[in-house]
Write a structure and sequence with these properties.
This protein has 464 residues and is α/β, with parallel strands linked by helices. The chain contains 15 helices and 17 strands. An eleven-stranded mixed sheet has the order 1-8-17-16-15-14-13-12-9-10-11, sandwiched between helices. Strands 3-2-4-5-6-7 form a six-stranded parallel sheet, with helices on both faces. α5 links the parallel β4 and β5. α2 packs across α3 and α13 packs antiparallel against α14. The longest helix has 22 residues. It starts with a strand and ends with a helix.
Length: 464
């Protein structure tokens, strides 16, 4: 089950419900500390020096328990009650990593000069920082700075993600956000909310296991309309992304000018030139329009056919890239799956707004996009990709990293989504979330190896 993103007040209620059932605070803090220590190990090597700054509250206790679990590192634990007495060690103690356990979710007031100076000193060193629950100086409810704020490379938050950590103002301080969900709290008293954090365990039964008697006709047929003069690579990458989802068949329709370069690079997918009035194959079970349809050689009917299929087809239809600008407003057939996959700039263009407006409130922008195009599903790409529609829950994807910011990665994702929907059209929400999760996870696994990587590497890793 995904975990609801909570306010600080809700998090406090969850904790109080836990203590009321006899679970001790120490047992929960020890598990939180163990999760924090596990992340610290991933960020360092045996023997590295780790500087742990622990405040007076429970956030400091989490950090202290983490320090106990780092026996194979050289740990310097600094218990900070007066920030002025910790300045020297914070500013000069040898460290490969700083663990920030100074302030937790209870901070809701401006910091005084002494604390600001301490946090500024830590930031000035430029060392990697791991924050416990929330970067010190940040309001976990609003995402506002309460003075100087620790700039963390990674934040491990406990129990549930707090709303303030997802605000645009918080992103530069939070760094990579990881959730340590299983820390011994009782069952969360809050149901699925309007915003939810995706867990790997959400996909334990997806995709379902293939039965022994199945054949390629059992797993759908994705049609991809993609590629044009100068943009043939997008069609190739979308097809290869689709094939990583293992649908039964993939057919690519492309422009006449792009046909040879696309066909010469695809062995498993069928490739055909787009012709006016051409019908979809009878076995088609989903359609993807858009990757690489930006050349000057587009057939005159391509935009109108995209709009027609979006408005009339009973099949799942995915629109990406250039095709996003061709979609009509208004209703689509009841129960028909419709998906758009914009990045923030494309979303802004579709809404007639600025990219900054979209990014300032991504959940609201997602809902507006969905409503404007027939209550379609929206995969709003970018940092912490969002999946949702005009009503109901939205899901934050926790995987991915800046390495995905290279041409072609979005084409791969669009193809992967199409390949899944061709097989599992009734599992639309799960398929979309799974696609975003696996796409980001592949990038994370590549980044963990170190060195550079490209979209060919991403394809090889996707789904593995």
């Amino acid at each position: 089950m995904p975990v609801p993103v909570l306010s600080v007040a809700q998090m406090r209620q969850w904790e109080e419900a836990t203590w009321a059932l006899g679970v001790t605070q120490e047992s929960v803090m020890r598990r939180a500390g163990a999760a924090l220590a596990g992340c610290a190990r991933r960020l360092t090597r045996p023997g590295d020096a780790v500087l742990v700054l622990a405040g007076r509250g429970h956030n400091g206790d989490d950090a202290r328990f983490a320090a106990e679990d780092l026996g194979d590192r050289t740990v310097r634990l600094v218990n900070v009650s007066d920030p002025r007495t910790a300045l020297a060690e914070a500013g000069s103690a040898p460290a490969a990593l700083v663990v920030d356990g100074l302030f937790g979710i209870g901070l809701n007031r401006p910091l005084d000069a002494g604390w600001n100076e301490l946090l500024r000193t830590v930031n000035a060193r430029g060392l990697p920082v791991l924050a416990a629950d929330v970067p010190s100086g940040l309001d976990a409810d609003t995402g506002e700075a309460r003075g100087e704020v620790i700039r963390a490379d990674v934040t491990v938050t406990f129990g549930a993600v707090k709303r303030g950590l997802l605000q645009p103002s918080a992103v530069p301080f939070v760094g990579r956000l990881e959730l340590a969900h299983d820390i011994g709290l009782v069952r969360c008293p809050f149901p699925e909310s309007d915003l939810n954090w995706t867990l790997a365990g959400d996909f334990d039964r997806f995709p379902p296991r293939r039965r022994v008697e199945t054949h390629k006709g059992s797993f759908g047929h994705l049609v991809i309309v993609a590629g044009s003069e100068g943009y043939h690579g997008a069609a190739v990458l979308a097809a290869l992304g689709a094939l990583r989802a293992m649908p039964g068949l993939v057919t690519v329709f492309t422009t006449q000018a792009a046909y040879l370069p696309v066909a010469s690079q695809l062995a498993q997918a069928m490739v055909r030139p787009w012709k006016a009035g051409a019908a979809l194959p009878r076995s088609c079970s989903a359609v993807l329009f858009g990757p690489g349809l930006a050349g000057e050689d587009l057939p005159a009917d391509l935009k109108t056919e995209t709009a027609r299929l979006w408005r009339e087809s009973e099949l799942p239809v995915v629109a990406d890239a250039s095709a996003l600008d061709w979609l009509p407003s208004g209703a689509v057939p009841s129960g028909a799956v419709r998906v758009i996959t914009p990045h923030p700039g494309e979303a802004a263009r579709m809404l007639g707004r600025t990219t900054a407006h979209v990014q300032a409130d991504r959940p609201a922008s997602l809902r507006e996009l969905s409503v404007s195009r027939g209550d379609c599903w929206v995969v709003l790409k970018g940092h912490q990709t969002l999946v949702g529609r005009g009503d109901g829950p939205q899901f934050v994807n926790p995987t991915g990293n800046p390495g995905l910011a290279q041409g072609g990665s979005g084409d791969v994702l669009a193809g992967y989504i199409g390949g899944l929907l061709a097989q599992f059209p009734s599992a639309d929400a799960t398929a979309l979330r799974y696609a975003a999760f696996q796409h980001g996870l592949a990038a994370d696994e590549l980044a963990a190896r170190g060195g550079t990587w490209n979209v060919a590497d991403l394809l090889a890793q996707l789904g593995s």
